């Protein structure tokens, strides 16, 4: 039980730092990386919930969320790439 509290505290701290970087990020690339990090930590939180509640449904949610977050990262990366080409 204590280890779960420690893990969730560290995951929450990681989410906080990722959110701060997303808000304060000096460039769009920093914001994209922090958003991807945020998504990976959320996947970790949901996986921990699956472990605690011993439910396979959470693992299905993790898989779908991971696929959607990957697509989100690709879309934002394409947006940033296109933005740099427009300035040339």
Number of domains: 1
String of helices and strands:
HHH
What does the radius of gyration come to?
16 Å
Mean pLDDT figure: 90
The biggest beta sheet is recorded as: none
User: What is the 3D form?
Assistant: flat
Describe the structure.
With 88 residues, this protein is an all-alpha fold. It has one domain. Helices cover 91% and strands 0% of the residues. It has 3 helices and no strands. The mean pLDDT is 90.
Secondary structure topology:
Elements lengths: L1 H23 L3 H26 L2 H31 L2
Helix pairs in contact: 1-2, 2-3
Q: Characteristics of this structure?
A:
single chain; mainly alpha; 91% helix; flat
Structure at a glance:
91% of the residues lie in helices and 0% in strands.
